[in-house]
From TrEMBL:
Organism: Roseburia faecis
Keyword Cytoplasm tagged: yes
Reactions the enzyme catalyzes: (2S,6S)-2,6-diaminopimelate = meso-2,6-diaminopimelate
Name this protein carries in UniProt: Diaminopimelate epimerase
GO terms classed as biological process: lysine biosynthetic process via diaminopimelate
Class in the EC hierarchy, top level: isomerase
Amino acid sequence: MKFTKMHGCGNDYVYVNLFEEKIADPAKVSIAVSDRHFGIGSDGLITIGPSDIADFRMRIYNADGSEAEMCGNGIRCVAKYVYDHKMTDKKEITIETGAGVKTLQLTVADGKVSLVRVDMGEPILKPDLIPVDASGEQVVDEPIEVEGREWKMTCVSMGNPHAVIFVEDTEHFELEKYGPEFEHHPRFPKRTNTEFVHVISPTEASMRVWERGSAETLACGTGTCATVMACILNHKTENKVLVHLRGGDLTIEYDPDNNHIYMTGPATEVFHGIWEEN
């Protein structure tokens, strides 16, 4: 199986072009290739294939084999892959995901994609659609008990569920301790991604993320969008925010006129090779 290793701000996946390759059991393959000691090493597997409703279709499999609806860093890498590998010459493309069709604008330099701006669509705030077990129209600054402590969470879906927690210090936060407890908390029927966020200024924030099915990752595109929406809902930032992640920076902008969130960031191809299935 031919593959390409790519990352968006350190959120790394193994990419397989289904126009050329076939995968009988992508969940099983994702578990194997993601292993950082016995496999290629990644946060999961992303496949690129044909679509009946968009230019391309992507499917995302986490390191544990579970399928995710959407990946903001992954979709930027898909855009770079299809352009750089001459599968399209368009600088605005559409990609079908488990969270609907997304439109992407490509910035090209010397024939290669350097930045990708993604229309991530409308944030989902209704609890039953996120999903999260809660009453009311939105979950904003709502208490939740985890590990004997009361936290305040704001919940947003960007096609996949996110719980945003504001903290004083992200660098020394015990993510490995609290991340799994949030992910598997009974209030999240489909588990959840959890972002721990420090607001630096009205236009800047830092974030660490515990991703559902993949543990800590260096970045999360949908999580960064959810974070900025949570900041706005809690009156902590303006509508355009530079977010610092462990793997790099993303710029997130919320447009109140159409209720859409836009993400701009890089995508990087690391290497390609052939996977020999054991």
